[in-house]
Amino acid sequence: MNLPPILTEIAEVAGEDAALTIARVRGGTSIYIPPVPANDHWLCRLIGRDEAKAVCAHLTRGQGRPRRLELPLGPTGSAASARAQVDELLGADMSERDIALRTGYTIRGIRLRRKKLGIKRNDGQLSLF
Predict the structure, then answer these.
(1) What is the rounded distance in angstroms from the CA atom of residue 34 to the CA atom of residue 59?
(2) pTM of the model
(3) Confidence check: pLDDT of 125 > 70
(4) Is the pLDDT of residue 43 over 90?
(5) Residues 6+ apart with CB under 8 A from 106
(6) CB contact set of 59 (below 8 Å; sequence gap of 6+)
(7) Cα-based distances in Å from 83 to 28, 50, 55, 87
(8) What is d(CA 20, CA 74) in angstroms, rounded to the nearest whole number?
(9) Cβ contacts of residue 23 below 8 Å, gap of 6+?
(10) Using CA atoms, how far apart are residues 83 and 36, in angstroms rounded to an integer?
(11) Of 71, 73, 80, 124, which Cα lies nearest the Cα of 103?
């Protein structure tokens, strides 16, 4: 699975399920990572003590100082599902305007997504040349 960089780091030390669980529960927010989590820390309760210790040690780089970071939504977030819906509608050759109205994406965002996917725009115009 293609995860954002910070979730990839978490997956490497605690497993993909732990990374996805953290993203599902706390994604889209700023989180506090202590060097060593207390037994009742939210991360220990969420993924288990050993995994939480490994994540905290890795993310604080063993420096003994806490770290605050912005945690992305990951592939389970609403952004990922909206992006998947935009991709599907682009493949169905729906107009940018209709896609924007249906998904809440901006037309600019749709154009950027179309470009990233390499989908040519069909504007219904015949070529003059």
Answers:
(1) 9
(2) 0.62
(3) no
(4) yes
(5) 100
(6) 6, 9, 10, 33, 67, 69
(7) 16, 34, 29, 6
(8) 7
(9) 7, 71, 72, 73, 74, 75, 76, 77
(10) 36
(11) 80
Q: In this predicted model, what pLDDT tens digit does every residue of 97-110 receive, in sequence order?
A: 899 888 878 889 89
End-to-end CA distance of the chain: 44
Cβ–Cβ < 8 Å for 36, 62: no
Which has the closest alpha carbon to 29: 79, 78, 70, 77? 70
Residue 90 in contact with residue 117, Cβ under 8 Å?
Answer: yes
Question: Domain residue spans in the chain?
Answer: 5-73, 78-117
Strand partners of residue 67: 33
Cβ–Cβ under 8 Å, residues 74 and 23: yes
CA distance 12 to 84: 25
